[in-house]
Amino acid sequence: MSIKQGREPYVGVGIESVAGTGVVAAKYLPFTSCSLRGMHEPMEDDAAKGVRDKVWGAVGGRQHGEGDIEAYVDAKNAPYLLYPALGSISSDTASGESTVYDHVITRKTTSTPKTLSIVYNDTQDTRKFTYATINTLELAVSDGLATISANILSKFPTTGTASLSITEERILAFKDYTIKFGSGSTGTAALSAANSASATKVNAFALRINNNAEAIYQSGNASTQAVTVSQFEVDGEYTLFYEGTTERAFYETLLDGSNAVRAMIITFTGDAIGLTHNETIKIEIPNFFIRERGVDTAIAGFITESPTFVATYDPTEAVTIRVTVTNLTASY
User: Under DSSP, is residue 235 helix (H, G, I), strand (E, B) or coil?
Assistant: First the structure.
């Protein structure tokens, strides 16, 4: 008997040039959990046949791949999930540098999520998931390490091959990020105000991207033939001590349309690289509103408020969300 530990599996990802056409893994991601698996839905014969017994057998049914990958956030590996989730990336050398790069990742009206080929070795088996589409992506941090979690839909897995190669990266935590808010007449003006504002101290932050993906089945094949995406949504929440009325006022007065556009900028800052830069992940949301705002008045604790926000498409910036990653990787 050879009993394996949970640290021994490994996951490799590669961004597909053509959706569903497998590619070799370009990066092996350190992960904290992975539940990728093939899903088979047998179709039962439960027709009435004169007895109380319900099931008389089954035939093969729909097949697809599904599961979650969660990892710690770092500036080198995060784009392997952020880029496929959003669909558009532009890479160039950072200002004044030759080996430092800025990668601007956006969701535009002309872009759809990119698909991945994922190989997952669970110690007993190596499976390859093609047409892997990020259905939802969540980035979260409270008072520990920041995590990024992707829910994935794909074609039914096949036998894969993998060659493990793990490199150590600088992971990011609560002490490495700031959040700033700003308002203005447009998303562009609000982002500019946020960029100049002082950071707001928060206790926790979470951001979710939802592509509303769905596996599509067609005649002649039990496996899903494609994974489509529907409406695009970005939301999240943040928690802070209840020390003023800013969030309450914004939540209440938005309803009558009197508020200006409000924006937020979340920046994770890591190690110094190149001449004058740091590894960074900068998330810009040019326009958002608060959908719900709870106040926790626990008698034994501190009073906190937890606004839940929804990001909206901003026509002046032509995005709902933009992520700029600065690192030493030339391209993705």
Answer: strand
